[in-house]
């Protein structure tokens, strides 16, 4: 069974949800300089809204600059939204962990993060001087991804999400 990636409205909703959780941790943490912390939380809220507005206005298919260059992840605003969800999710978890209030990542965010990492960071088109190989990644939540490593690089077919390979 192939499952499709999160759509832009879901990515935007989840970015906002994770950013709200991040701000909640910052607001609950004791501060040496409360005015600065409040200003930072307000700035983060405004920045998040600006990001959401910009991504929403651009739509999921607008081409844009990305740091990942030539990978299997597209260079679109939808892919940026997907990656920003992972950024805010991980930084929120780090902040919660530091504050002693760590909450598990929502399963859909964690699983999408695995796929985002695999297709953005692990796929490559460089040469592989060794024998071809297949690498299977399995999440305890039941999703799996299969990557092939061959002479011309490593890749997984788009949406290789499969239960139990």
Automatic annotation (TrEMBL):
GO terms for cellular component: plasma membrane. One of its GO terms (molecular function) is metal ion binding. InterPro entries: Maleyloyr_isom, MDMPI_metal-binding. Pfam families: MDMPI_N (PF11716). Residues 23-96 form the Mycothiol-dependent maleylpyruvate isomerase metal-binding domain. PANTHER family: CONSERVED PROTEIN (PTHR40758). This is Mycothiol-dependent maleylpyruvate isomerase metal-binding domain-containing protein. It comes from Kitasatospora setae (strain ATCC 33774 / DSM 43861 / JCM 3304 / KCC A-0304 / NBRC 14216 / KM-6054) (Streptomyces setae).
